[in-house]
């Protein structure tokens, strides 16, 4: 699990280096969903459900807002 976390951190740092001023890479929906899924998988594997719930409140509120509209 730590190797997976380290590889995800390395990928994010590589993306950050190419996404400074004059950004040349756009992550898009697929990349952000994969990153969020990986973060959620790591949180659920380590048993850290409370921080996962707190960090996802904004996204759940956004989904509910879209469904209500």
From TrEMBL:
InterPro entries cross-referenced by the UniProt entry: Glycosyl_transferase_4
Keywords noted in UniProt: Membrane, Transferase, Transmembrane, Transmembrane helix
GO CC field: plasma membrane
Main localization category: membrane
BP GO terms, sorted: cell wall macromolecule biosynthetic process; cell wall organization
Transmembrane segments: 49-68
Keyword match Iron: no
Molecular function via GO: phosphotransferase activity, for other substituted phosphate groups
Compartment(s) of residence: Membrane
Keyword Transmembrane set for record: yes
Membrane disposition: Multi-pass membrane protein
Protein name: Phospho-N-acetylmuramoyl-pentapeptide-transferase
Species assigned in the record: Nymphaea colorata (pocket water lily)
